[in-house]
């Protein structure tokens, strides 16, 4: 690798910057590379070979770069590439042939099927207005889009325009007026979903022409659509968004009683599936470690409101040119460099997630995944963990040397991050969530990505040729450097999750411009045009949403308005590395005591995500007794608050009065511990956990405290007990079990102790309620009282986590 730097720096000395300006920094880069090479000594033949290849990559990339030709062939030659469309199929086949023409092994790999395909043809729209004083109709062309997976018009359809009813109850009184009309919804979302659905259901009866609404802020029309699961569930009418500056005058004319007719001719076609969907895979085989990989990619699919240039034709074109440069330069990487172009990204990372799921055996052998999906601005850096830095500095030193000669308009930085993001908005996240280092390139430059992203402006002229050429060289050098590292990239303490709702926000900082399919916002029912209101009760400050989400606990109660309807939901994010220490928690009881606990989040996306447990230890123990339960509960998506009960651990008073009462086994002290649980539940509620998603798990006297607290609070979800007793330390569990209701209850005990506890409680419960949901588990091991069963009874921790996962699902 050091020989690579030496030859690369020497080659860079002969190059010119744009406009003929000499690369004055090249001698300094050459001197640094020479010093490094001399310090290391003689390089291997493979390093020498790839050093020459790296220099050749830069030379070819600057003098004979084909990236814009690739982009032109994709976005102009083929066009938009919606998942399930014929154009995407054409793009897949075209991409395979391109890679093969470079000398790579390339093929299509199916990842799934689409039930209904969608192809878009031409469209036109005109507003016909008759002046109030009469006369001929005046035609005004409209700028608009029709949403994907919605029907067309079957030829020109001209009809009057009418405003939609504001409430579902108003539809019946408006049927005569609605008949045969184009229906206009006011505002960005228009009427509620209930109104739209009710009209859709009566579409044939009313002969409705279709639905219209205003486009996004300013001059943007943002394309989206819901992929249909079958023809039967597809919308029955065209759904159209008109440029906002044109739409509002239409609404005002209707309100003023002017004559307005609209004509649309929209050629939208559905194809009955199933239609096989593919990822494109192309390999530059490794010379020494062909079964280890560096993956370079982007997504081949796009929305079809334009030609899908910056999202993500630019990423496809740079990956494709990086492959051509590597092959043309004669690079022979130690590991295989695999180029992957995924489909289904816009519908929720479908292609990349399916590949990861189908190839678990390959994941440990993938060193890194590099994804370019941020538009046409040049690649300016990567966020890396501190443990990756030594390897990344070595691997990307050729990139740094190249950028140093590329002029002051370009930069490249490796910056430290706490961890790589999961839950991100592109295909790298599918790998990162599976434990593979996935990177989303930093980008910088003058291009306005928000202006083109998913809009009618995402066309070929939005791409910057200089940025694209630069990025293709960066990708080729980075892939080669990573492929030649002595070892796979370090994965220790790798993961952290970026906290995103899964929406794009309009310029006012609170209005939802677009909802990302498959993201939490979509799952919770946030829609385009909704207004975000608060996070954990604090009003959302325009421009500060990211900060409000990223600070504090990774569970946030988000409130928003859908029309006049107030809505809220709990959003949860994976806090990251399992090896981290839990966060300290302090809380106050109703009788004035200060308690301490350990707060540990559950993994976002797991079945019981958004749930929490209060963990209650044995007599004389403390919260650390639950440490081995953290990981299995984390994996189940369950957060934990392990509490030091009053008088135990750190939950002692300054006056020193509690400890003697604990030692004396004062029944009044233990009977008051249900107040400790009440304080813990209130602490969790403040962090957005509803009471019905909170459970209690206790050991020994903690069982008695959990039962007492649960019968006093019928909203709590369930209780699990480890070695419950009938009357521990004066807490009468037989009395409490007589008040137990239909909620799930788990009692786990050794057989040797069950006769004085769990079996007696179970019998009492069943005598009162033979159909109880209670579970009794008796273990054959001995000396396993309470949390002492952890590490002794094989798999008991996972069995408990599985029970809770099923209960809180």
Task: Describe the 3D structure.
By secondary structure, this protein is of the alpha/beta class. The strands form seven sheets. Strands 1, 2, 3, 4, 5, 6, 7, 8, 9, 10, 11 and 15 form a twelve-stranded mixed sheet that branches. It has an eight-stranded mixed sheet with strand order 24-25-27-26-28-29-32-33. Strand 30 and strand 31 (731-732) form a beta hairpin. The radius of gyration is 32 Å and the shape is globular. It starts with a helix and ends with a helix. The relative contact order is 0.08.
Tell me briefly what this model is.
With 809 residues, the chain is α/β, with parallel strands linked by helices. The strands form 7 sheets. Strands 1, 2, 3, 4, 5, 6, 7, 8, 9, 10, 11 and 15 form a 12-stranded mixed sheet that branches. An 8-stranded mixed sheet has the order 24-25-27-26-28-29-32-33. Strands 21-20-22-23 form a 4-stranded antiparallel sheet.
């Amino acid at each position: 690798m050091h020989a690579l730097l030496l030859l690369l720096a020497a080659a860079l000395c002969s190059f010119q910057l744009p406009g003929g300006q000499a690369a004055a920094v090249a001698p300094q880069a050459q001197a640094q590379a020479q010093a490094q090479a001399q310090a290391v000594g003689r390089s291997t033949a493979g390093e020498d070979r790839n050093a020459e290849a790296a220099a050749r990559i830069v030379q070819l990339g600057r003098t004979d770069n084909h990236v814009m030709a690739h982009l032109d062939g994709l976005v102009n030659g083929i066009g938009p590439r919606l998942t399930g469309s014929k154009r995407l199929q054409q793009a897949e086949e075209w991409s395979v042939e391109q890679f093969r023409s470079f000398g790579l092994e390339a093929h299509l790999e199916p990842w799934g099927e689409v039930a209904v395909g969608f192809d878009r043809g031409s469209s036109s729209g005109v507003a016909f207005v008759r002046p109030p004083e009469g006369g001929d109709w005046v035609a005004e062309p409209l700028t608009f889009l029709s949403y994907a997976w919605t029907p067309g018009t079957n030829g020109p359809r001209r009809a009057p325009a009418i405003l939609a009813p504001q409430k579902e109850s108003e539809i019946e009184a408006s049927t005569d007026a609605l008949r045969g009309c184009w229906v206009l919804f006011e505002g960005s979302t228009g009427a509620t979903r209930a109104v739209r659905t009710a009209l859709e259901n009566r579409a044939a009866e009313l002969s409705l022409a279709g639905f219209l609404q205003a486009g996004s802020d300013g001059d943007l029309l943002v394309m989206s659509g819901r992929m249909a699961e079958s023809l039967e569930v597809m919308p029955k009418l065209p759904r159209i968004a008109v440029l906002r500056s044109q739409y509002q005058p239409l609404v005002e004319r209707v309100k003023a009683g002017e004559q307005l007719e609209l004509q649309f001719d929209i050629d939208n076609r559905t194809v009955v599936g199933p239609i096989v969907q593919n990822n494109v895979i192309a390999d530059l085989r490794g010379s020494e470690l062909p079964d280890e990989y560096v993956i370079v990619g982007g997504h081949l699919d796009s929305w079809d409101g334009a030609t899908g240039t910056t999202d993500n034709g630019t990423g496809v074109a740079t990956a494709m040119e990086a492959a051509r440069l590597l092959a043309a330069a004669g690079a022979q990487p130690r590991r295989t460099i695999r180029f992957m172009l995924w489909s289904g990204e816009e519908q929720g990372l479908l292609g990349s997630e399916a590949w990861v799921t189908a190839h678990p055996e390959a994941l440990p052998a993938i060193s890194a995944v590099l994804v370019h999906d941020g538009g046409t601005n040049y690649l300016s850096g990567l966020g890396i963990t501190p443990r990756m830095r030594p390897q990344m500095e070595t691997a990307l030193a050729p990139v740094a040397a190249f950028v140093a000669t590329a002029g002051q308009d370009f930069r490249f930085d490796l910056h430290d991050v706490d961890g790589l993001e999961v839950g991100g908005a592109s295909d790298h996240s599918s790998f990162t969530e599976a434990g593979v280092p996935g990177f989303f390139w930093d980008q910088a430059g003058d291009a306005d990505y928000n202006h083109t992203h998913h809009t009618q402006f995402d066309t070929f002229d939005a791409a910057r040729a200089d940025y694209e050429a630069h990025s293709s060289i960066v990708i080729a050098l980075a892939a080669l450097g990573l492929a030649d590292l002595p070892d796979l990239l370090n994965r220790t303490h790798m993961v952290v999750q970026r906290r995103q709702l899964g929406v794009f926000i309009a310029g006012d900082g609170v209005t939802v411009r677009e909802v990302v399919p498959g993201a939490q916002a979509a799952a919770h029912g946030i829609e385009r045009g909704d207004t975000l209101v608060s996070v954990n009760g604090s009003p959302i400050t325009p421009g500060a949403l990211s900060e409000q989400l990223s600070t504090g606990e990774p569970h946030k109660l988000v409130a928003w308005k859908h029309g006049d309807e107030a809505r809220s939901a709990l959003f949860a994010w994976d806090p990251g590395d399992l090896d981290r220490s839990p966060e300290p928690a302090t809380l106050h009881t109703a009788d004035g005591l200060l308690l301490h606990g350990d707060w540990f989040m559950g993994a976002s996306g797991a079945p019981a995500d958004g749930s929490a447990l209060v963990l209650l230890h044995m007599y004389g123990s403390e919260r650390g007794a639950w440490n081995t339960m953290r990981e299995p509960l984390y994996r189940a998506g369950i957060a934990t608050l392990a509490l030091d009960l009053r008088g135990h651990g750190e939950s002692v008073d300054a006056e020193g009065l509690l400890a003697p009462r604990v030692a004396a086994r004062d029944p009044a002290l233990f009977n008051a511990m249900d107040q400790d649980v009440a304080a813990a539940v209130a602490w969790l509620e403040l962090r957005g956990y509803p009471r019905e998603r909170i459970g209690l798990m206790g050991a020994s006297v903690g069982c008695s405290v959990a039962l007492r607290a649960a019968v006093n609070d019928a909203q709590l979800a369930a209780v699990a007990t480890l070695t419950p007793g009938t009357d521990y330390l004066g807490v009468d569990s037989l009395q409490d079990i007589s008040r137990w209701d239909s909620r799930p209850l788990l009692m786990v005990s050794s057989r040797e102790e069950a006769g004085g506890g769990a079996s007696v409680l179970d019998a009492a419960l069943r005598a009162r309620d033979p159909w109880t949901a209670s579970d009794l588990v008796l273990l054959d091991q001995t000396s396993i009282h309470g949390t002492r069963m952890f590490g002794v009874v094989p798999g008991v921790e996972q069995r408990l986590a599985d029970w809770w996962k099923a209960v809180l699902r």
